[in-house]
Amino acid sequence: MRKSFLITLLAVLWLVLAASSSSAQSPGIVDNGWMPHAQGPLNGDIYTVIWGDTVFSISRRFNVDQYTLMSYNGIPSPYRLLAGQPIRIPTSGPGPQPCPSPFLTITNPPPNTNVGTSFPVSGSGCGLFEGNVFIRALDSRGVQVGQVVTTLSGPTVGIGGQGTYNDTMTVSGAQGQLLTLLAISNNVEYSRVTVNLNDGGGGIGQCQSSALSIFEPGEGANVPASFTVRGDAAFNCTVTITARDGGGRQLGTANAGTFQGTQWSTTLALQGGIAPWSDIFIEARTNGGGVAQRRVRFDGGQ
Fold first, then answer.
1. 282: in domain
2. What is the pTM of this model?
3. Bigger pLDDT: 18 vs 4
4. Which domain holds residue 129?
């Protein structure tokens, strides 16, 4: 009982001392108030680390670049902090307040524009830990085809302030693919834009690639007499579909048309007295020389 009372008394005394010492602030020290973590006491220019503090949160509270803060205190990378550790805060003039809501944008390239396999990418952000920026390019199936790893540039980025980035993105893939660019920082997606991989090498409006695939129906799938066929192809390509039996007899055709994207879809109707559970061979072709095939089975209307 006596031990519990002493522990409680010491905790109360610590809080009182922390509250009083936090007001004892040296001239020239900018204190933005308590942040998530960084809630320890400030006495003059000495901040006392409490459990859960990070270099980033302390630097944001006092408007000091985190690298300057660690260098000022002679703390080497990886910048580990211990509860009770004194941190001397450098004197600084009033600076811009860290943004209340983090963001990261892509301003170039603009949405729905044509890009080549290498193109500039730029934007701005604020409130990002260490200013980290990841711009990832995904194709229409969600496969990553390019990435830029960079950081924001600006005088207050180190304390969570606003900055900009400017880099070059290199991607792989067939001309005409739609690409989604994701702006990510510390595993959080903040924004995205969609662009078209088409640098005009063969002339906008022409089918410039033999890229072609069928992803529906799946290989060996059972199909009825009329079913949907879907796939990927290059921008501005015309896709035609033909179905044949094992002897090469034509059972049906369909035209997916010329589309302003990468995914195509059409309905294929089978005709000609097909025996149930017969193999059907689907062939897709484009005017760019693309060929894709898929084997399915006719379910006989079962």
1. yes
2. 0.44
3. 4
4. 103-197
